[in-house]
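Title: [Solved] 4-oxalomesaconate tautomerase 3D structure

Original question kept below for reference.
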Amino acid sequence: MLMRGGTSKGAYFLARDLPTAPAARDELLLRVMGSPDERQIDGLGGAHPLTSKVAVVSPSTDPRADVDYLFLQVAVDRPEVSARQNCGNILAGIGPFAVERGLVAAGEEETAVRIRMVNSGDLATATFPTPGGRVRYTGDAEISGVPGTAAPVVIEFPPGEGKLLPTGDVRDMIDGIPVTCVDNGMPTVLVQATDLKITGFETPKDLEADLALADRLHELRLAAGELMGLGDVSDTTVPKLTLLAPPRRGGAITTRTFIPVRCHTSIGVLGAASVAAGLRIAGGVGADIAQRPDTGDRIRIEHPTGFLDIESSLGTDAAGLPVARRTAVVRTARKIFDGAVFPSPAETAPLPVLTPGGPR
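Solution (posted by the thread starter after getting help):
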């Protein structure tokens, strides 16, 4: 099933319809998406990381969840499939997909699906309308970066078990640049844009064309990965780098996020959750330029194509360190098509051909 989830688009599969061996699965998915090719002309991919994503869904063995969701990022221009991160946008389609495929029974008015994100072990609950026991995709919820409106998918994240501040410090210095490393579902490095000699209001295209900036961000990301306990991140997509600037359109902060080389045209859900949490930490990078609301949990994160609202609250642990208490977001999802995909020929051993009923 091809679905739009939030501001991303991807192919959603039942785990039983894919090869069980990761290498064979990844080879098949590269062919399905048309990678490596910058246009992905021979597959389902949309020639951008945001439209070259895969969700693999199965019944969960975890008593806290109904389904397991494995996210796979299929590279566009190289033969690489990564399972190193979650995707909160594709997550928006997991609940509807689980109902469509019969993994979860639909309620008469709405359905809540408990999801375990296999990549990290984190949990989420997605609630969406199912009048008459069928998923409804139409509605009046609007999210930036997606034309029109659709039914709301409310996603709530329980507090994670990992450290909100992976380095143990509110601020770290990397090459003379102050950063805040935060993980509220997505390892993220917060950097004030002016510290990199830019405004933070540039377009993604202009930022991507700045080769000196790209080199600086690369070095920052490698160093931050080591500080955050992620090891050598040169071949991974985490941590994300988010550049911060004052808000311009009534939100709390302006963001430009790198994923990790391309500049996001919006911002990922889990990345925004980490930004929102980071802005609530006294002394964190960006806290002094953010315009946080005086009351309530909602923080509006501005991005290149609009905004994303995150409900975020923090507390402290026994040692007095900040911890996430509540994180929630409203997204939308849409079923685009449902059927069989035919992988392109490959000069390797033949792999299963996908059919609506599974491989044969």
